[in-house]
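Example S7 (structure tokens).
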């Protein structure tokens, strides 16, 4: 439907859909970035506007918050394909069809005001009420891997909690991030909500992010990204939520449904070309079923590298001399990656895999590309030990395929991850095709886990002494 429309043409098309004036061409595009749609030239101005908006928003009833969130969902639904198309085009990462699914997930399964549950204690001493109140203005950092998905789910949760939010998106996804902020503000305006509840800057930089981190009117920081940006956020001196890296192991034992496990692993690993931090990054399989697993994976659009020479070429391509990942290949299609080392494979191939030793860099590093190392182990105990080791204590995500409840329990207790997926693709852990709410901010380092509306609130106590206990 979207064909080969480029980003500038798409912005103009969406503006027209939003009933904005496009007659002045480029000049109108510049006008679109002005502050009445939440986009500013200067971070200080953005923060000031968000602060003013939050003061007004704090007077709104919960029903008005619900109305605003529903308007946001409705407007965002109309632009799912545009976000997916622009995201792939601008960042050069991921798959269009999977990004469509991720955006729908963020829009439909991010909790709203219903997540704010009050608590009460009553007795001889009267009544004590516990309520969830907003922090105020939240500064949020979004990654290039899931730029608009993160902006959407954080906006819904943070606004439902009563906050306003200032986004500092990754420069690699700035155009699509700006568009998301504009569409959200347009949706809020449709129901006469405050202007600038969600804001950002037109040109995000390290400098503008630092301004946001240090600004006195920012009450909370929420950083979604790599370990570097999380560390910076945690050093801000403010209340901080850090959603960092993962290196999820997928463990397969001899009791597993091997055919299903193979399909689930390929589906999870290949989802948006392995960009989600929840995706399978390495497979650990008990030796007696390893051959069967490998054979089954080949039936589900997975390509095995068998010779050492080809594997070494792939290593040199996707890893730097220092052993870190080559970002040029993050989120790229499997056939594109293989073509760079002179091997043509069918575009239908979703995943490249190879059997390697347990210390191979593909096992140790979080590649975030559809390359999957497979490691054989003698038994489940060795597999659990290795799984814990390669997860690196991120406490992010782990996956296991098994019918042995004792083994599932043992691995879950040992690895201590925020998400533990049993007998399903990794994306079941964020609510895709499964029960439970969705989020793209999974706070392992700071312990909040799968964030939702209540994550972005302060728990407050209100005491009515010696009264209104009617038991």
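Recovered sequence:
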């Amino acid at each position: 439907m979207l064909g080969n429309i480029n980003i500038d043409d798409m912005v103009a098309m969406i503006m027209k859909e939003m009933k904005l004036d496009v007659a002045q061409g480029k000049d109108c595009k510049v006008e679109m970035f002005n502050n009445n749609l939440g986009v500013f030239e200067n971070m200080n101005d953005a923060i000031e506007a968000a602060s003013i908006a939050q003061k007004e928003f704090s007077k709104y009833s919960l029903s008005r918050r619900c109305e605003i969130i529903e308007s946001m969902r409705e407007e965002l639904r109309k632009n799912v394909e545009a976000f997916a198309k622009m995201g792939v085009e601008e960042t050069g990462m991921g798959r269009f069809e999977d990004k469509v699914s991720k955006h729908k997930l963020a829009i439909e399964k991010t909790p709203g005001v219903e997540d704010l549950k009050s608590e009460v204690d009553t007795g001889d001493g009267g009544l004590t009420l516990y309520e969830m109140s907003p922090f105020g203005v939240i500064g949020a950092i979004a990654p290039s891997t899931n730029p608009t998905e993160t902006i959407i789910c954080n906006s819904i949760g943070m606004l439902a909690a009563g906050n306003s939010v200032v986004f500092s998106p990754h420069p690699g996804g700035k155009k699509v991030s700006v568009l998301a902020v504009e569409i959200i503000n347009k949706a809020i305006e449709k129901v006469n909500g405050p202007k600038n509840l969600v804001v950002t800057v037109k040109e995000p930089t390290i400098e503008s992010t630092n301004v946001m981190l240090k600004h006195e009117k920012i009450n909370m920081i929420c950083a979604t990204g790599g370990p570097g940006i999380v560390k910076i956020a945690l050093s801000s001196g403010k209340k901080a939520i850090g959603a960092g890296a993962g290196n999820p192991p997928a463990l397969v034992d001899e009791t597993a449904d091997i055919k299903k496990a193979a399909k689930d692993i390929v589906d999870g690993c290949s989802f948006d070309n392995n960009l989600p931090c929840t995706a399978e990054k390495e497979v650990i399989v008990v030796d007696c079923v390893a051959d069967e697993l490998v054979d089954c994976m080949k039936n589900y659009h997975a390509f095995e590298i068998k010779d050492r020479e080809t594997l070494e070429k792939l290593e040199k391509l996707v890893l730097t001399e220092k052993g870190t990942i080559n970002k040029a290949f993050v989120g790229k299609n499997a056939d594109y990656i293989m073509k760079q080392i002179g091997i043509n494979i069918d575009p239908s191939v979703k995943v490249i895999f190879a059997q390697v030793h347990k210390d191979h860099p593909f096992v140790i590093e979080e590649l975030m590309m559809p390359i999957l190392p497979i490691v054989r182990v003698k038994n489940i105990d060795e597999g659990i030990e290795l799984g814990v080791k390669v997860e690196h204590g991120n406490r992010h995500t782990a996956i296991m395929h098994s019918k042995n409840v004792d083994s599932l329990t043992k691995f879950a207790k040992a690895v201590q991850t925020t998400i533990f997926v049993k007998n399903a693709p990794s994306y079941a852990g964020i609510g895709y095709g499964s029960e439970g709410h969705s989020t793209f901010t999974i706070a392992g380092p700071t312990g909040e886990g799968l964030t939702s509306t209540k994550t972005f609130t302060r728990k407050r106590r209100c005491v009515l002494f010696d009264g209104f206990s009617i038991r």
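Notes on this example. The chain has 17 helices and 18 strands.
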